[in-house]
Amino acid sequence: MQDRARTPVPERLAALAVATLAMAALRAQFDAIGPDAGSAGVRLWAMAGYFTILTNALVAAHMLLVALHWRISAARAAGLLLSIVMVGLVYHTLLARLWQPDGLLAWADLGLHTGVPLAYALWWAVLAPKDVRPGDLKWWLVWPLGYGVYALIRGALTGFWPYPFLNADALGWPRVAVHLVLLAGVFALGGLAIRRAAGRLAR
Question: Has residue 97 been placed in a domain?
Fold first, then answer.
């Protein structure tokens, strides 16, 4: 952790607002699954299969820490931005047309895929430190690549594939590998865009 005393009050209050939104969306998703799906542990395990859920949880945890005086590093703040923005972009370009949620699930969907990415992006643009370095990009890719490995191992063991483009049973492993390479490229391009934006905003 970095210097606690110098975290500005506006940054902390805004971070608390982002954390609250993320936690509300996560709780709505949990409640929307419903007790019929099993115990709380079973529902949490099901939710933990999704990059969307895990990334929103990371945003919530980091924003809570900032609200409690932790001063987040520029590299970590930008890495979170890359992952949560990709949550929104991938969902709205590839996945949103595949289903039509309603009721509480629709509100959870809106929060997780739209509200939190926009809120965190605004927090980052206005309040986050921007002194990122060229070498930070490789570390920003660790989380999405790590998730990809986790999702494939979990899918191979359980038959649960969180996203259609990762479904090796239906698509075959070679095609899934191509999808992962393409996604890694998109993440890398997004990271380059964020690094450039950070430089401009810092100036």
Answer: yes
pLDDT tens, position by position, 160-198: 999 999 999 999 999 999 999 999 999 999 999 999 999
Predicted confidence (pLDDT) per residue in 69-119, tens digit: 899 999 999 999 999 999 999 999 988 888 888 899 999 999 999 999 999
The answer to whether residue 3 sits within a structural domain is no
In a domain, 2, yes or no: no
What is the spatial distance between Cα 1 and Cα 73, in angstroms, rounded to a whole number? 9
* Domain containing residue 27: 9-202
Domain count, the chain: 1
- Residue 13 placed within a domain: yes
Q: Is the pTM of this model over 0.85?
A: yes
Most distant CA atoms of the chain, gap in Å: 53
Q: How far apart are CA 43 and CA 26, in angstroms?
A: 12
8: left (phi over 0), alpha (psi -120 to 50) or beta: beta
